[in-house]
Each structure stands twice: as C-alpha cells, then as structure tokens.
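Bench notes, afternoon.
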Amino acid sequence: MRNWFLHIAVIFLLCGQCTTKQTHEASLPDVKLLGPDSVTVGQKFTIRLIGKEKLPDSPVYLLRHTTWGTTIDTFGQNHAITIVDTLAGMVLAEVIYGGTKISQKLYHVLPMTTTMPLDTYLGSKSIIANGQDWAMLTVIPTDTFGNLVQAQTPVRFELVRPSNVAENKQALTKHGVAYQIIVAQTKAGKTLGYVTVNGLKSKEKELLEVADYPADFRIWAEGTTPFADGRQTFKVKTDVLKDRFGNTVPNGTLVLFECQDTNHTLRQLNGYTLEGVATIAVQNPVSAGSLRIRASVSGGGKSNLFTVSFMAKK
C-alpha cells in the first residue's frame, strides 16, 4: 500500500514539472530574426523581429557574439535595430527575452577593399651578393577599419635589381599576409621593391646587396726611404679588394697588416678600405735588414708577402 502511494506522489510531481515547463514555453513569443546573411564593414543594415503574435512590453535584447567580444542592444517599439559593424568576421546574433534565447541568426561581416598605406616589411635590410643569401618582402593589406583583406587577394611584387632588370611576381594573401623571397644576385648594389594590391602601390623598400668576402689581393709600398732610422714613414696599400664575382668590398672593411722586422718584432696595424683600397703608414725599423709585410681580411683573402729592405744610416 505504501509503495502504491509513493508511485502516485512521484507521478504527480513529474506531471507538475511538465505542466510548468509547457506553460513557460507557451509564454515565450514565437519570433524570427530577419537580417542579411553578409554585410560589408561600414555598411548600415537593419535586424528585425518578426512574429505572429504581439511582442511583450518587457525588454527584448539582441546579443552579438564575435571573436572580439559581445555587444548588447535593446529592441525598440518598432522591433528593429540598425547596426554598423566595423570589425570583419562571423557574428552570432541572439534574441534574449526573459533570460531565455528565443531566436538567433549567423551573419558574415566582410572586409572592405585594401586602403593606403600598405603595411610592408623587409628583412633583412642587406644581404650578400653571392647568389644564395636572401631576404623577404612582406605585406599585410588592410581596409579602412584595419581589417585584414579577404583571403586569396592577389598581390604583385615588383623588384628592380642591381643589374637594372625588373622582376614581377605575384602571390595570394593567406591569413592576411603575402610575401616574396628575394634571392641575392651576384652583382652588388640596391634592389628596390614595390608592392601593389588592388591597384594601390606601396612606397619603395630598399635592399642592399653587398660584396662577399674579398678574394686574395696584392699589396705594395710607396714613399719608402732606405734608412733604418726609426723615424721615417712610408705607405703600404692594397689593390682594390673585390669578391669572387668582381664586386668591390664595402667601405670600412677591416684589413689587418702584420709587419715583422729583422729582430722578429711583430707589429699589427689596422687599415680600413675606402673605395676598396686600404692604406696604412708604417714607421721605418730601427735595425738594418728586411721588413716583411703581409695583409689579410678575416674570413676572406690574404695578400702576397711584401719585403722592404733597410740599411743602417751612416
């Protein structure tokens, strides 16, 4: 008997809950959210609520969820909200009434076309003209509101190489970025790079292609005096230092000169190139005999061994 009464009590409780749920669902308005499936940023559009029955006077909210966050608006008496989105991406719009979602719609906000200035980046700023070194020219096109342009947007890269030969290459944006690898040639000079997107051309980017380490070179002396007086000086010069492709090394390239006298005393002097030539001033030794001079560039070539003879002053 007790079990029978217990079953009746459980059934009554469940029926009461079902009745409450059905009553709550029946009290919710049957509405539909109308609006475009896609819009362009900056474009004004309207979202409306359409229903068979009159909407209640209680506040009805519109929540718009994006990757940037959530915004909340309140429907007015005309059951419409005018919106201008400035951030591209997918938007989930939800209608909330009495704390419950009663309708929703997904729409896509598309970016505008590319606008100036074009964000272009070049790295590194200089490479070695050895036919192997490389740099990268990158562009991130955006619209007026800073949104990345649509994927697969064509981008044209124009390069003017040190040989004055123009190169034109094309890439498509992916994840908002397009890039072009610039492989060094074997002629030193400047490569100028330009990027064009949707008819808009960027400012030039300058890539410096510099000579590689110099090959072996020759040195000689000028203005020598034959006396070992420790007082006179003379100059030692190099050839124009060039790499294996014939490019003159940059100004300021360090050249190490080693001078050894007849007493095996070693002096090391630094010279720096100007228009490819390094020059140092060497003081005459104090003892008669030969002064042996050799020059080298770290990582690069070496010179011949040059010998200057000195005699004791009578």
